[in-house]
Amino acid sequence: MGGGGPVGGAGPVGDSGRRLREDAKACLDAAVDAVEPTRLVREVFEQHPETLPGTDPVHVVALGKAAAAMARAACEILGPRVAGGVVIAPTDAEMPTAGNLRAFRGGHPIPTAGSERGARAVAQLVDQLGAEDSLLCLISGGGSALMTLPPSGVSLSDVRETTGILLRAGATIDELNCVRKHLDRLKGGRLAEIAAPARVLALLLSDVLGDRPDVIASGPLSPDPTKFSDALAIVDRHRVRDRIPTPALEYLKSGARGAVPDTPGPDAPFFAGVDVRIVGNNRIAAHAAVEEAERRGYRTRLLTTTLTGEANEVGRMLAARGLEIRGGEGPILPPACLISAGETTVDVRGTGKGGRNQELVLGAALALHDRGPLRGPLLLASMGTDGIDGASHAAGAFADQTTIARAEALGLDAAAALTANDSTPFFEALDDLIVTGPTGTNVMDVQVVLIPE
User: What pTM was computed for the model?
Assistant: First the structure.
């Protein structure tokens, strides 16, 4: 994790700053540990044995950033009952070796050839299942990109380019997944359609606000409330119609005209054979962070588990909440801790290296600097629970009341870094990056604001 940082002309972080970073990192670690996917899957089967799919052989499909760990847990619990299956996980995942599972490594957030190969293997597997078969689906965030099977006439390259354009335009996960559903043969409930009439149990680790099964991994087993017309409206809302690859755009337009069947809605009869359960989410993670902060002696307030908005503006808002407490005007007194969780967005305009968590923290650092000298220290940290923040090797970053002064002493321009979306080199120079490596889970982001006495 980040430490004291280069001394430069602004002075080191100091012992108190290091202690705050240790406390904040401990809260973030507790959040991640609370949603460790192997334990979550095991707990479901131990606490609710009726969820186990009968006594017959079980076919397993696991996809997402937690796919490998969830599949490993299923193989440990079901043992020789696992007749086979498919796992699609990120390139750095440690794949399970039991249960005759075929493993594929896909790309995220942009799908790769491995994403398509894995998706084809899933389609082939479930298409062979009959009414006497049981299918266990283990789904986590990242599954939208990791399992990608474009429709006829649309190439993987078209989907890759469309995804990148929408990401750079600042599309929310709900918006991005709506478009993905309508450019895919498995998403938006279509996997359930192919799997029918098999019995399907789906255990979902949520990485979306509201834990909506139709949004998590683009809802391959859930009725889709969106239409082709909604996907086109999202393209237009972000003003990227003229940049979307022609085959992808024409496919969306043909679907909106009714020339292509839309994704299945709640009236489709095959959903009756699908049992979907949420096994973990960001509320579990946030409450674990709260408990760790309280254990460390902080008066703690959970602000929200549905945090959204432009990252750097959200960072400024969280800094303002901390400053209220620092000034004796907040809802609790120091030593205080504010916890929030959710997922912000970034409207990418520059060509730098960073992510939404680092931009959130950079916005907070600028807000603290604009306030002028504080009565005492204040630290803010934000981290992606998957250990990956945008196009960087970091999970997030720290900032406090010394961040901008330390940066200026090193010749760094925080405002310019924000404009260029280049937050990673900025925080790396200060030794204030949070680097964990991939965690094997994914329930969006967690923020910690600490205001000591």
Answer: 0.88
